[in-house]
Amino acid sequence: MIDYPLIWGILIATAILIYVILDGFDLGVGILFPFLESDEQRSTAMNTVAPVWDGNETWLILGGGGLFATFPLAYAVLMPALYMPVLLMMIGLIFRGVSFEYRFQDKAHEKYWDFAFTAGSMLAALCQGIALGAFVQGIDVVGRAYAGGWWDWLSPFSLLTGIALVVGYSLLGSTWLVMRTEGALREKAIRYSRITLLLTIGFIFLVSLATLSLDPQFMTRWTSWPYMLYASPVPIAVAAAGFYAWRSLGQDKDYKAFLSAITLFILCFIGLAIDMYPYIVPMELTIWQAAAPDNSLSFLLVGTLFLLPMILGYTAYAYWVFRGKVKDGEGYH
């Protein structure tokens, strides 16, 4: 018998992970934007992501829309709990998106569009991290409905995860610039990559410790047998990926540091999965309890089998067409 809820749980989680990685680096470029030295460097940095940023957000739509269609109960519980950070995230993404187009066309107000690009990127990244923290710390559910308050999403833990994600996206953005630029901008990106790498490793450690204190089940899954058998390699791999990223910075093959940063995010996502599985609303609803009927899930899966290769195909094609270093004065615009 096919376990449709499990399949869809994996698909939704994968879509969210791909979104975090792909949109994470262009949000990271926006976060680093005010720290670049000149208008020429800022234009070059923006041009490295201009051809792909909107396609990256496809995965956010797939993750959010897929959650609504396949796990409607989870969607109905999570959205009231996370309404404010999600709304602010969308506002940030709108300002970030508008600034891409207007900055190069409205030179008279360029500084305002620069601010919109940076502020929108920071707001979106911060709110994504806050929403993640609010999700992990738990959602109050009574009678299959959200029973918490309006401000439950705001806590010291969610603020910690919010800041941590801003720093992590900055790492993705800086290593992306190392890979896609040259000269003075590349050298500056290498310096920022070293700083954000150390900060990211530090925040991974802090968030991991804080997460263990949220629920006894989290501690059990990382410190008891046989859970330790598959959980213990994760922190070891995080340390190895961080070390490899540090060693890769400034060497000939600039893509290595970027891939190492992506590996850090994947490992953190695996750690989150170890904490959460099989719950889709932490410690309240499993993926099977929150799933739509199997006939609906199977129908949606047929369409997804056609749609997903198309999304992967045009995403890969866009990155292939716009591959290589972006020189000053050149780019999409």
Please report which band the strand proportion falls in: under 5%, 5-15%, 15-25%, 25-35%, 35-45% or over 45%: under 5%
Which architecture would the CATH scheme give at its second level? Up-down Bundle
Number of helices: 14
Specify the overall morphology: globular
Overall number of structural domains: 1
What is the tally of beta strands?
4
Biggest sheet statistics: 2 strands, antiparallel
Q: Mean pLDDT, rounded to whole units?
A: 90
Which consecutive residue ranges, at least 5 long each, have pLDDT under 50? none
Q: What CATH first level would be assigned?
A: Mainly Alpha
Structural class: mainly alpha
Helix content estimate: over 70%
N-to-C SSE series? HHHHHHEEHHHHHHEEHH
Gap between N and C termini: 51 Å
Oligomer: single chain
Trace the largest sheet across and list its strands. 1-2
CATH topology: Formate dehydrogenase/DMSO reductase fold
CATH level-four homologous superfamily name: Formate dehydrogenase/DMSO reductase domain
What does this structure look like?
This protein has 333 residues and is mainly α. The chain has one domain: Up-down Bundle (Formate dehydrogenase/DMSO reductase fold), CATH 1.20.1630.10. The chain has helices at residues 4-32, 39-49, 53-56, 58-70, 72-105, 110-137, 156-180, 183-212, 216-223, 227-231, 233-248, 255-276, 287-290, 294-321, and strands at 141-142, 145-146, 279-281, 285-286. It has a two-stranded antiparallel ribbon. It has a two-stranded antiparallel ribbon with strand order 3-4. A hairpin with a 3-residue loop joins strand 3 (279-281) and strand 4. The longest helix is centred in the first third of the chain and has 34 residues, at 72-105. The mean pLDDT is 90.
